[in-house]
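User: Some background: our group keeps a shared notebook of sequences we're curious about, and every so often someone picks one and asks for a predicted structure to add to the entry. Today it's my turn. The entry only has the sequence so far, pasted here. Could you supply the structure so I can complete it?
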Amino acid sequence: MQAPSSVMSTLLESENFQGNIALNESRDTWHCRLGHCGLHILSLLKRNKVLYFKTAVADPCTTCHLAKSYKLSFTLVEHCATTPLELIHFDVWQSTIISPLFYLYVILVDDFSRFTGTYPLK
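Assistant: Of course. Here's the predicted structure to add to the notebook entry:
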């Protein structure tokens, strides 16, 4: 299956394309409306007279920056459990749903087996 941007490029470069959207919006608006497509797709749409927008310096798109961000890797640990229940990681979690039954939960993870248990607290 082709990526959406390559499908769009193939469609627009074909000679049989009969589209015309005559709305005068900003390039940033079209960038968002078309699923945060790259500037090369917007340029192709403008060149084929499908979209009309003023060519200006594009504002940085917060959504695109967040989507391309990545988490830093965890530091490597020297100790790994060699038997079950030798090392247990735990966390206390507060429910985002207001419930009269349970408000807090304890999550336990065994380092050796990766067995996970969730236990409600009153």
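Suggested note for the entry: Residues 7-67 form one domain. The longest helix spans residues 4-13.
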